[in-house]
Amino acid sequence: MKKAARITITGAAGQISYSLIFRIASGEFLGKDQPIILQLLEITPGMNALSGVAMELSDCAFPLVKEIICTDKVDLAFQNSEYAFLVGARPRGPGMERKDLLQANAAIFSEQGKAINNSASKNIKVLVVGNPANTNALIALKNAPDINPSQFTAMTRLDHNRAQSQVADKIGSSVSSVENIIIWGNHSATQYPDLHHTMIGDKSALDIINNDWYKNELIPCVQQRGAEIIKARGASSAASAANAAINHMRDWALGTDNCVSMGVFSDGSYGVAKDIIYSFPCTCSNGSWDIIQDLTLNDFSKEKMKDSERELLEEKEAIQELLND
Ligand code: NAX
Q1: Which atom of ligand 1 is nearest to the CA of 50?
Q2: Distance in angstroms (rounded) separating the CA atoms of residues 208 and 287
Q3: In degrees rounded to 5, what are phi and psi of residue 288?
């Protein structure tokens, strides 16, 4: 029997976690032969709801779950943690400006970054889901100086999956035939879904798909999909977000040759500013990600990528004092 892996999930009583925790517990993240210990973090007012989640987890009798820790203590939640899904975040309240939202979250993610630095495994892999995800990930990594910045990532896999599915629908093909989708930039309305490298079988997607549909329908559809779901469902994406979080972490931990979009610490690839968390096309092996290099970018792509970079630099500016630089 393998040693149990310690997995932290924050915002554990929220709606994304209500799907995420149960799928992880059933083995969909690390596999059906990997026992796990779940370290679930909530804020104090969420602890009662979290105890209900824990009762349901127990009632599933998942054989892989060796222990469930429910806590509102940040250090305990990250104790020896090897994988962390940072889902909990402060939602925008009435009258809250974008800067207020950034700062409220910056306070949460700087505290969690410090706790990761102090308590977690030095090999931890961190995925930030809670919005604004890219900048929250940057704050967490800046507050964890003993952990390599490459171990902090932000989620753009939901946007990636959305684009892949829309393209497959459009051409009446299966999602698995659509390869090399790229989401560049921020997980926000400035993100840039790029089809210029996308292949459908052995054909370039843009030889099959009309350019007008790509620019005028697909790009805004992916950028606005979250808002469309809220309008229809009366609540934001949850099951699909949990699914994307598992896709992201599973590929990172176990490897993939496919091109996957991940918000990672920019090293300046493709002329993107260093020192921000920016979504790039990546492959993963041996527990590490690599940015796919040497893709040709046209002027349209360069301009869209810059727009998203600019937004991330503005977000960084708004929380500069919490970056510990
Ligand atoms: P919910 O409001 O249902 O759940 C959030 C939970 O986090 C709540 O139970 C709350 O008590 C808890 N929480 C708040 N502050 C916390 C803290 N400091 N420590 C621990 N727990 C804390 O939100 P949910 O729908 O689950 O969404 C969670 C986050 O994911 C939001 O920020 C949301 O915007 C973001 N999303 C990000 C996506 C992405 O692709 N990156 C897509 C889905 C989603 O919109």
Answers
A1: 9
A2: 35
A3: -125, 160
Q: Which distant-in-sequence residues (6+ apart) come within 8 Å of 40 by Cβ?
A: 8, 9, 12, 17, 21, 50, 53, 54, 68, 69, 70, 71, 77
| Assigned token pair, 51 | 């105890």
Residue given tokens 């727009």 in the structure block: 307
At the top level of CATH, which class does the domain 5-154 belong to?
alpha beta
pLDDT, one tens digit per residue, over 155-185 is 999 999 999 999 999 999 999 999 999 999 9
CATH for 157-317?
3.90.110.10
Instruction: For ligand 1, atom 10, name the residue with the nearest CA.
Output: 11
Evaluate the CA torsion angle 178, 184, 187, 189 in order and state its sign. negative
Q: Which atom of ligand 1 lies at the shortest distance from residue 17's CA?
A: 26
**CA 198 from centroid of its chain's CA atoms:** 21
pLDDT at 131 over 70: yes
The model's confidence at residue 325, banded by pLDDT at 50, 70 and 90, is: low
Q: Identify the bridge partners of residue 169 per DSSP, sorted by sequence position.
A: none
Q: Where are the domains of the chain?
A: 5-154, 157-317
**Pocket of ligand 1 from Cβ distances under 6 Å:** 10-11, 13-17, 41-43, 46, 87-91, 108, 129-131, 133, 155, 158, 187, 226, 236-238, 241
